């Protein structure tokens, strides 16, 4: 009944078995082409993308650390430069202040000396004018006295007249 396609020992039809095996192999080949191939390709691409993303993240992290270290270094250099600029400005201001104080002191000394010189000149002029006035007054009194002898009241009147003449000049 089964003929050649029947196995003697197990009584399974050989034709059905061959058909099932060939069908299974063809199905596996079709699955490999249609499903496993693209699926494996997608999974490999995804694994590569994840690997590249991890490598990219590591590279970005290293670059970020390098940039951070560079910024820290630049910040330290900027702070040093700022400190130097402030110190130079303080030194310059101190020098300028000292220079202005020296000039002002020198000018004050010069003005003081000039004032003393002017005061001495005014004093000498006042003494000279007083001597001339006293001399001319003495000469005038003496000439008047010679012209007449004066009583005490006449002398007082004469002195008052000369003083009033001096005040009007």
From TrEMBL:
CDD domains assigned to the protein according to its UniProt record, in alphabetical order: ATP-synt_Fo_b
Membrane topology reported for the UniProt record: Single-pass membrane protein
UniProt GO molecular function: proton-transporting ATP synthase activity, rotational mechanism; proton-transporting ATPase activity, rotational mechanism
Transmembrane segments: 12-31
Cell location: Cell membrane; Endomembrane system
Signal peptide: none
Keywords: ATP synthesis, Cell membrane, CF(0), Coiled coil, Hydrogen ion transport, Ion transport, Membrane, Transmembrane, Transmembrane helix, Transport
Gene3D superfamilies: 6.10.250.1580
One Gene Ontology cellular component: plasma membrane
Coiled-coil ranges from the UniProt annotation: 47-81
Subunit structure, interactors included: F-type ATPases have 2 components, F(1) - the catalytic core - and F(0) - the membrane proton channel. F(1) has five subunits: alpha(3), beta(3), gamma(1), delta(1), epsilon(1). F(0) has three main subunits: a(1), b(2) and c(10-14). The alpha and beta chains form an alternating ring which encloses part of the gamma chain. F(1) is attached to F(0) by a central stalk formed by the gamma and epsilon chains, while a peripheral stalk is formed by the delta and b chains.
Function noted in UniProt: F(1)F(0) ATP synthase produces ATP from ADP in the presence of a proton or sodium gradient. F-type ATPases consist of two structural domains, F(1) containing the extramembraneous catalytic core and F(0) containing the membrane proton channel, linked together by a central stalk and a peripheral stalk. During catalysis, ATP synthesis in the catalytic domain of F(1) is coupled via a rotary mechanism of the central stalk subunits to proton translocation.
HAMAP family: ATP_synth_b_bprime
Similarity comment: family membership: Belongs to the ATPase B chain family.
Protein name as annotated: ATP synthase subunit b
